[in-house]
Design brief:
The complex is a heterotetramer of chains A (184), B (319), C (145) and D (661). Chain B has helices spanning 16-28, 47-50, 52-68, 79-94, 96-107, 123-138, 172-179, 198-201, 203-219, 230-238, 240-247, 258-265, 283-291, and strands at 2-5, 32-35, 73-76, 119-122, 149-152, 224-227, 255-257. Chain B has 319 residues and is of the alpha/beta class. In chain C, strand 1 (10-15), helix 1 (19-28) and strand 2 (37-42) form a beta-alpha-beta unit. The chains are: A mainly alpha (184), B alpha/beta (319), C alpha/beta (145), D alpha/beta (661). The interface between A and B is large, with 66 and 72 residues. Bound molecules: flavin-adenine dinucleotide (2 copies) and iron/sulfur cluster (SF4) (8 copies).
Amino acid sequence: MTLNPNSVYGRIISELHGGEKLRSCLQCGMCGGSCPSGPDMDHTPRKLFAMIAAGQDDEVLRSNTFWYCVSCYLCTVRCPQEIPITDIMYHLKHQAIQAGLYTTDAVDFSETFIGHVENYGRAFEFGLATQFYLAHHPLGGLKMGPMALAMLSRGRLNLRPTRIKAVRQLRNILNKAKEIGARG
Amino acid sequence: MKYAYYPGCSAESSASAYDATSQMVAAALGLELEEIKDWNCCGATEYFSIDSLPAYALVARNLALAGRQGTSEVIAPCSACYVNLKKVDERMGDYPQLNSDVNEALAAGNLSYTPGSVRARHLLDVICNEVGCDAVSEKVVRPLAGLTLVPYYGCYIGRPEGGFDDVENPQTLDRLLKGLGATVPDYSLKSSCCGGHMTQIGTEVALGILRGLIDLAAKLGADAMVVACPMCQLNLDVYQNQLNSHFGTTYRMPIVYFTQMMALALGMEAAELKFEEGLVPAGPMLEKWQAAEASPQPRKKKSKKALPMPEPLDGGDSG
Amino acid sequence: MPEDSYEPKIIGFLCNWCSYAGADGAGMARRKQPPNVKIIRVPCSGRVSPELVLRTFMQGADGVMVLGCHIGDCHYGNGNHRTAKRFPVYHRLMDYMGIEKERLWVQWVSASEGQLFAEAVTQFTERLRQMPPMRGKLTTVPSPD
Amino acid sequence: MKIGVYTCHCGGNIAGTVDCEAVTEWAGRLDGVEVSREYKFMCSSLGQELIEEDIKEYGLDRVVVASCSPHMHEPTFRNACQRAGLNPYFLEMANIREHASWVHKDRSEATEKAMALTAASVARVRYNEPLFARLSPVNQNTLVVGGGVAGIQAALEIANAGYHVYLVEREPSIGGHMAQLDKTFPTLDCSACILTPRMFEVGNHENITMLTYSEVEEVSGYIGNFEARIRVRARCINQELCTGCGVCEEKCPAKVVDTIFEAGLGRRKAVYRPFPQAVPKFPVIDQDNCIWFQKGKCRACEKFCPTDAIDFEQDDRILEIEVGNIIVATGYDAFDARRISQYGYARYPNVFTALEFERMTNAAGPTEGNVVLRDGETQPDSIAIIHCVGSRDVRYREHCSRVCCMYSLKFAHMVHEKLPNATVYNFYIDIRTPGKDYEEFYHRLLEEGTVFIRGRAASITDATLTPEEEGKLIVTAEDTLVGRQRRIPVDMAILSTGLEPRHDSHEVARIFSISCSREGFFKERHPKLDPIATMTDGVFIAGCAQGPRDIPDTVVQGAAAAARVLSIIGKGEVEIEAAKAEVNDLTCVGCQMCIESCPYSAIEHLEERQKARVIEALCKGCGTCVAACLSKSITLYHFTDQQLVAQMRGAMDALFELVPA
Ligand SMILES: Cc1cc2nc3c(=O)[nH]c(=O)nc-3n(C[C@H](O)[C@H](O)[C@H](O)COP(=O)(O)OP(=O)(O)OC[C@H]3O[C@@H](n4cnc5c(N)ncnc54)[C@H](O)[C@@H]3O)c2cc1C
Ligand SMILES: Cc1cc2nc3c(=O)[nH]c(=O)nc-3n(C[C@H](O)[C@H](O)[C@H](O)COP(=O)(O)OP(=O)(O)OC[C@H]3O[C@@H](n4cnc5c(N)ncnc54)[C@H](O)[C@@H]3O)c2cc1C
Ligand code: SF4
Ligand code: SF4
Ligand code: SF4
Ligand code: SF4
Ligand code: SF4
Ligand code: SF4
Ligand code: SF4
Ligand code: SF4
């Protein structure tokens, strides 16, 4: 079967290393049965793959499945067809962001995180917590309050980020990578 | 043997206890760790979701730096860092196009990396398989007798492409803890996921997962859960209070690093092992240990009618 | 003639029991492959003398494949052991004649490895496409009769 | 020289991709070609007659058929030539189907390749020489290896036709896996009841020499004339004296878990018969577990044996036999469930394998047919049966094991029958019931109330979440028909393990000069038209050794293999391939390089003349010696240098003409 290269399916197959293995999905449900986030996903990974094959691209990209994926790789190590499911989840997040079709704020979490990495070269847990929670879960953030305090008091949260020396070098590398990624 | 050491971002903040005890234990076992100079964050699980090539390049920079320091193996105590390092190295080897793209990006920072030249190792792997559990237990001066410790590996050991232990039923930490003198029950959720970043974006989902993990450990009579990953520690420890108020439970399960427990058994002072960093206090567990005297385990009697039990595969000693 | 339109001419000597059956298997499974390899059936890879290989190059072949059973699976017990032992001889002779050793492809392909066969054909053809044609490099030998 | 070339369309198989008309036309212009024709189906009787008529009418002296693989139809066209009075070795085939039309898409590429292959065969056939296949008498004895139901069936068919059979079985008794089973699907007849009479018949047949506790170590020779060396392991029982009373077994103090016949669920003694109906009836002493052999104490069996039949001194015996044909029916191994650790076999006591469950439901088994948990007492209220364990999984076995859906249904039925109040869940991907009355059996289970959950079980754990789950095994799976995860608490789980090749199938294949397919099952000559024969003439395969199958199909294959052997015996003689090597006395310098190279030691050195000589009866025509002889003194008929070089040049010349560089 030739696939529309711009469909969700087509892009997984052409852009993702090992993505072509998705063609051999047996619909066995091993992934869906194994996933720790499965009960809270609106579609199990297996179901999502059936929807991808059926061309229901919009519904696929609006699904919370891949946002609830915690990258535990359990599905990947158990899939009887060796389909790189976790990587497909990453790729679907990527596609959903590009299509502007995401429904959760997990994206912002990831983007805040990445922003720190790009600025400092290191992750910055305290900054992440404040920036992310204050922007998205003012209430959740409050609940987090005592927890953050407890961690602070035990020296487990740094109030200032650590910065690596060669931030410029790192940024050059990342910018170059983005450029290469964009040229496809 | 000399290893490059990749502490990971959490070493500087939330998991400084792990970092400190890892270095103490390594020194006691004669492992020479040389921190990668000016290493950067591995991107955790977040970077791959947004853009994959920069994510690969980010990790590859660390591998390149390790290579430049002249080491062929890098130790990561954090499982997520370990998986990222390993995955990037292996994928670059498997996919030539990816390899050349990543190297093109690295070149913008005057770096290069040859796949396969720096092997990522988890600290647990090096301790159990290079030093050896037997060698460790020979060094034990204060056995952990009297303590029931549940080994919790988390999901990243052996994933995604298979690592140093069985993916589903790993044994290394079990063997290590038994070698330290602890009682180690067969904890069937040992390689289940701790919820990862779910605690932050879908708290309810995560709390459910965490509850299952702690619940089974409690049922097995655990005095503590022993982990090998800062993310596992953070989720199980820091969210335990919230979980209790959410479900109306009363768990007080200390979540400790295996390096802390090793350090104890190797004779280091508890006060120096940063147990106080845990939100759930480890005090009761430590007191119990100090009070305990090694007492033999009661053996369950089998009925005459019982059918034979199959032997585990490679003579492992689970169950 | 521009480089990219050059199609290498390849002769494959395949043992009857394993590799020839493997090539048949590739056919039965419809494993697509470039058409460049022309197969000649021999009883055993051990039958393929260095002379035969050299004559094939002299005839203008751009590449020669010698495929036989896996070591230990030889229909004749261990005929292919001799084939394995003969590699250095092949290579020395080719070297002597000024033929790059990349032009000889020796592999074990069993009767059930149709896919492996198709892959070998594809890879070898691809490799030779990157090399200049052979014709004219060597003079032909007199005909056998 | 008058060559006839026949290009076959094979319906659309060839003509669909190859321009047969162009090939025919091109071939017609080749040197020496007298007639060139195309035809829809060359192997049809009309196609063959076409060749025969042309040979007579045009006086053709060489024939080239451009069609399918010679493995498929070389005998067909050789026979056609022979019928028309032409030596069959004047035939060449160009394989333009498997090697051209089927592997290329582009019509012109495929056509050019077909032309080159045809030209190569035309060039070669000029140098073909008349050869005469040697006729060799057939030894009427047959060796059957493996005493499962396949081997039993084959042995009985041949023995009943009046010919002698040596049946070699590795275990102490024949019967194979079928002897372990309780009931057999879909009719649910008792396995022992239908198998025991056959086993008994084998044991008492005047034409069968049964060699149990034995293995074939080496085979040499060729069709009609094989020699086999068999190791008969020491039973430590004098079979002349033993009456099979079983007293020794009763008195023996050494008890071990029986991992073969009881599949690990039961125990046996060091001196034992695997099961009461064992054939032969004699026990064996398992030296690895016997206290006398290990520690030098005991000898209880000897003391109590009423006939003094115990013989600790017995040694292995080596038996050399001569046979004309061989049937290899060594069966399968059950997949080792411990390899999939998330199912917890060997970790949780109440996870069982399929074979364990067969033994459990068997009234003669360790639990006397009671379905109980590992404690040996408690009856389960709920049971999960997990399909496809080790099968349909590229990390373990890619194939479908074909029988496990059916036996899983059978298990569900057995539970309903024995524990009417128990709930049975079958976790499946697809229910595969391709057999007579098999789908009907599935319907019956639906009616009996088995719960079917479509989804490969993800894991089995003892980690419980709710009070209802407490103390149970939890099977997790996605119910794919609902699209949601489910957790099913059960008391017992049964793993429907797949069928895989015997762990030693590669070594066994080597002994018999046959090969294994990708999975490791023995490879047949042709998957559809010759599933019984192998590439080695005179060696046949039957039963699960060739691939997973149920008992009816196994029996059919056993009988079919016997029929093939009987037809060879019936003919009395076999044609031996005429491709033989010969040394040219004039040029041989006696260097003996060839002698060293021959895998069959078929070349002798004539001391007095300092020459090599090929012993015709031993030479198998591999041609290794040809390549070894530096003075080019050896000719391998039908694969001469001249012929191969001509074929190569034919191809090259055609290529330079078709695709000039
Ligand atoms: C759990 C289970 C339930 C089943 N239930 C049914 C059912 O209800 N109905 C049904 O139709 N089918 C059933 N089957 C399938 C059935 O078992 C097979 O179809 C049948 O047993 C195959 O017989 P066989 O002779 O080919 O192989 P086997 O039974 O495996 O016999 C092979 C014999 O060869 C011997 N052997 C092996 N290697 C050597 C050697 N090197 N030298 C000498 N001897 C050797 C072995 O010891 C064995 O005796 C079931 C299978 C399983 C696993
Ligand atoms: C659409 C289709 C596709 C298939 N594809 C495949 C495939 O790809 N691979 C595969 O393995 N199998 C395939 N099969 C199955 C395959 O066709 C059968 O397995 C096979 O043809 C059975 O052969 P047979 O000799 O038993 O019966 P048949 O082919 O039916 O032959 C029976 C013969 O007996 C003759 N006959 C009938 N009654 C009498 C009588 N009273 N007196 C004298 N002669 C009589 C008939 O005329 C006929 O010639 C396919 C089947 C179908 C329907
Ligand atoms: S486990 Fe693999 S084959 Fe099965 S449904 Fe999921 S992706 Fe498909
Ligand atoms: S990797 Fe993601 S999709 Fe796969 S099992 Fe883990 S959470 Fe579920
Ligand atoms: S001879 Fe071969 S190619 Fe021709 S019709 Fe018969 S099977 Fe097909
Ligand atoms: S060896 Fe003796 S005791 Fe044992 S079965 Fe034979 S006759 Fe009976
Ligand atoms: S000598 Fe061996 S076989 Fe005989 S009774 Fe003792 S243990 Fe059993
Ligand atoms: S027969 Fe059924 S259970 Fe067995 S492998 Fe095939 S589908 Fe799975
Ligand atoms: S290798 Fe050739 S020359 Fe030497 S003994 Fe054999 S046949 Fe004669
Ligand atoms: S062809 Fe030569 S090497 Fe082969 S069996 Fe005959 S004599 Fe031996």
